[in-house]
Amino acid sequence: MIVTDETVAQALPLTPDASVRQDVTFTEADVDSFGRVSGDRASLHFDERYAIAQGFSGRIVHGLLLGARFSRLMGMFLPGENSVIQTLSLRYRRPVRVGTRLTMAVELDRFSESVGAVMLKLSATADGQVVLDGTAQCVLCRPHGTGPATT
To answer: Which of 34, 54, 59, 141 has the highest count of CB atoms within 10 angstroms of its CB?
Structure first.
């Protein structure tokens, strides 16, 4: 399924081919906001000349801001709002310049119905090149009164 910021949340069926994708462009305003929230004001993210002097093509997006977009895809679509992220592992392959258009993807890797765990593959690509990949495990919430939820 391909989504936009306007797509209404809907948990996808946990079938072997389940996936969700979204094209995302991180703007200067996004980076500025993340810097205020996180407190990370490193010059590579905020000073164009400094970033270029360090060998980058311009300001780069915070790695955790990139990762934060996966939260939306997992929490709203796969596995959906009836889940909680238990583990998250991200590998940053290339820096992402502010203004770069990315395709963020979450794909079902495995679903263990017996323990209510969903294993996911994560990736972000720009111009066909992987800039970020990783994995996540989410646990499905159990309705109140049906036993303890896993943490």
So the answer is: 59
User: Cis omega before residue 148 (within 30°)?
Assistant: no
Q: CA-CA distance, 52 to 123, in Å (whole number)? A: 26
Domain membership of residue 114 as a residue range = 19-25+62-140
- The answer to whether position 54 is within a domain reads no
Per-residue pLDDT reduced to its tens digit, 73-128: 999 999 999 999 999 999 999 999 999 999 999 999 999 988 889 999 999 999 99
pTM score, whole prediction: 0.88
Over its C-alpha atoms, the chain yields an Rg (Å, rounded) of: 17
CATH code at 74?
3.10.129.10
Q: Contact 136/122 with Cβ under 8 angstroms?
A: yes
